[in-house]
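Quick one - first record:
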Amino acid sequence: MRKLSRLRRRKITAPALLLLALVIVGNAYAFIGATVTTPGATASNARSTMVTEGREIFLRGCSSCHGLNAEGGGVAPSLVGVGAASVDFQVGTGRMPMADMSVQAIRKPSRYTAAETAALAEYVASLAPGPAIPGAAQLTFERDGNTAEGGELFRTNCAMCHNAAGQGGALTQGKQAPSLMGVEPRHIYEAMITGPQSMPVFGDKAITPQEKLSIIKWIKSVENEKGLGGASLGKVGPVTEGLMGWVGGIGLLIAISVWLATKSR
């Protein structure tokens, strides 16, 4: 005890103890920092990895038309500022990449996996701000959508191109509005906020997010609607029904006329 008491009274004891404490604390902090990664840092690292992977995919499959830096070219538009939602829609529905940019892109099986599509979208999103991919928290159309309201909104804003039953229709210059049957809700939402090809952009001021959910709910209700009898004839209303009646009626009259002429000989 006397030795300890004498050591404490020495002038060098206090600085030495302070230095030892600092060394211990510094090493402990360095060890903890090296072994523990914050969630924010993990997310940032994951996003950086996706951006790098997306750029590699872009350079292989998209840069020949859209440019090495997605600045666009003579046959394809710039992708700067289109956002992740546009990429997810175009690539996720198989419309892109396409061999001939002079024709209308059609829906087909995607050439990329979901992970590759997500990486491409993340890369394009890193170029400039743009519409993001809607998540599950936004696509609550079954809970928050209103079918009746969605039908009214669809007939007002969409039916002139996509047909009153969402079956698609012809446009000018050989183009067409595709059928909306079997389309994923996420892709319907993305189409409304990005305006692919001939479709206008329906921003949140034109059609609110809740109204978009109502439109999706109405489309899905039509898609799941069961026929109550007879042929649906594409659900395009009296046009095809009248045509079938006219052709069938005229055909029947011609057949009767031929039969009567044959019997009279």
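second record:
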Amino acid sequence: MEKLYQALNKQVANLSVLFTKLHHFHWYVSGPNFYPYHAKLEEFYDEVNEVYDAVAERLLMIGGQPVSNMKGYLAITSLKEASGEEKPEDMLTHVLDDFKILVTEFKEALLLAQEHKDEATADLLIQTISSFEKHIWMISATLK
């Protein structure tokens, strides 16, 4: 179970960093696509916040201990913080790249959950993968 705990904890960290990055982009986006980007980034951070909480609570339910502070998040995240210099299209590219990383790592965690016959964790991961894959498709179409 330790590997599953570690995989889920990494996603708690990733989701926290992404949540913060999405807020930053939401606040600082500008230009001709301001309104649709601003609104979509808010949708993303609302969803990420729900998944972040769900993964952390699931980790607690199965006996793990989610990391819960910025120092801890930054020590284990796979994502990079926003630099503060991004243009709107670069913001979307960063979000796209982050969703791709999350999908890859959620699939790795899914295999661990399935190995432990933890169907509830597997279900949470599958639902999130499906949603994030849709975001990848839509952002990719937007950036063409």
